[in-house]
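Shipment paperwork, digital attachment
Item: protein structure file
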Amino acid sequence: MNILDRFEQSFERLMEGSIGRLFRSPIQPAEIGRKLERAMITNQVVSVDATLVPNDYRVAMHPLDMVLFTDYVSALCRQMEGWLAELANERGFTLVDRVRVNIAGDERVPRRAIQVTAAIADRPEIGRAEQDAIQRTEVYRVLREATGVPPVRLRFLGGIQRGQEVLIRKPVTTVGRAVDNDIVLESGDVSRHHARFEYAGHEMRVVDVGSTNGTRVNGKKVQSQAVRPGDEITFGTLTAQLLRFEPDGV
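Attachment content:
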């Protein structure tokens, strides 16, 4: 198996492992890998002792495409960084500093396309926490500007999704066991089409759509209820807490 195939398989595992296989992306992993590799090769600098290649990469896509990656954008950046470092080592290239990858939303990029820029950057070390904070700020900006709704997090407190989070980023977001939902919950006591989150003005509501086991907000069964950060929402027996999403991740 070649290095690009390994990258594609690890990318697909990341997508499959995301909670509920949310918001399947039209952007193919092999396309990202090829463009990263091309950016590395195109921008190499040959010296007497070594061949230097870029260590600083920017992957730009249309904001509406980037929205599909926001649940796991930091993990995807780390995966691309590891792959590029492996590629440089395999080709005998030299890096002047740790590989860094940033994903950015750019309206100038056509839908379903990506643009990659790369540079050789010898700069003071940026810690992982600082880099993740920079990426979260970009994610927050894209979510607000591309969707027009304030993003919130849904953190699952039990079941196979325990501890996992998903961003609610659409004016209407459907929840249920069937794969045509926006949030797919693989639990037997969740109905195929269980509930939906919807924005009305500046208010978010959760609406039960005739589920068998009901929807509850803070333990109380509801048909339609306004919700806000801090509330616990239960679909059947699967409970999640609504949390704010801020640029600093708090």
